[in-house]
Amino acid sequence: MTIRAKRRHRRLNGLYRSRDGVLFGVCRGLADYFDLSVFWIRFLAVVVLVMTGLWPMVGIYLVAALIMKPEPVRPIENDDEREFYHSYVHSREGAAQRIRRRARDLERRIRRLEDSVTSREFDWDQRIHE
Description:
This protein has about 130 residues and is mainly alpha-helical. Helices cover about 75% and strands about 5% of the residues.
């Protein structure tokens, strides 16, 4: 995947803090989202910092760092993965419960399949159909 395709893919998935950023990854995340050079985003941040003073810009930057979710370690490929990632970021306990529920459902399905395959009727059906 080319760099431009990766950026487009990131943009379609949403606005995230970059894991490769210098300070919390806010500027790189904005650059990736808007498909701009990180240099220009950082330059704009420094200009705004000089124009408004230290504390307003630092406050805005920290709020952005808190609001923006960190970029997923591996790219999100479908809606189920996106839903799980967002649920995990907001509530790890909720995501763990979701995984437990899914594991219980799979275990229940496997038990029904084992019961069906190991039943006497299945054995007789197999013999009859042969």
